[in-house]
């Protein structure tokens, strides 16, 4: 499948999957002052640094994707989203498995907080989940694709801006959201350039493949974090996806 001619070049998000604030600041110090890449702060780093550091990232001009995967009763998620909205982050995750009422509560909280630019995206199935895990351990029947497609429709129904899914599932996710009259975004983790190990991820994809499938955001962690020259690794991925966009 080739990318639509109307699709812009996807945005790269660097996953700051690091254990401490010092480690994160050391990584960011390797970037030129004029570069402010889109950063993903996940649970590990958020729990280590707290919300104040995330707010300072925003003050310094970094776009921030806060990947907390909220999943609780609607009332609790509503107030959690109101708290996050005060940080000024650009994107926030919650689990679609929490249900439509929970997701709708998150959207209502964002709107009530005036966080109109914060995109709420629903996590469908983690890229570490395969069919055996989903069927035998989580207890959801069918294929992973079946579940992801259904969850994308639920996220659209709840008024979210899009979903998180593997690159393999982007076309079906976009179709499911369109059927719900939503032109939603697809945020794709599990991105592995050629030659980079999959590690604990199962449903991975190269940046070029994800672009051709229609991904809007590519979340890249280890390929940049572990590189000898992370800025060069990031720029190479940018070049690769720009080329893929022209195919």
TrEMBL record:
Substrate binds at residues 17, 40, 67-76, 127, 192, 201, 221-222. Pathway: Pyrimidine metabolism; UMP biosynthesis via de novo pathway; UMP from orotate: step 2/2. It comes from the Bacteria. Keywords: Decarboxylase, Lyase, Pyrimidine biosynthesis. It catalyses: orotidine 5'-phosphate + H(+) = UMP + CO2. The active site is at residue 69. Residues 11-237 form the Orotidine 5'-phosphate decarboxylase domain. Coiled coil: none annotated. PROSITE patterns: OMPDECASE. It is an enzyme of class 4 (lyase). The keyword Lyase applies. Its EC number is 4.1.1.23. Homodimer. PANTHER family: OROTIDINE 5'-PHOSPHATE DECARBOXYLASE (PTHR32119). Belongs to the OMP decarboxylase family. Type 1 subfamily. HAMAP family: OMPdecase_type1_B (MF_01200_B). Catalyzes the decarboxylation of orotidine 5'-monophosphate (OMP) to uridine 5'-monophosphate (UMP). This is Orotidine 5'-phosphate decarboxylase. The gene is pyrF.
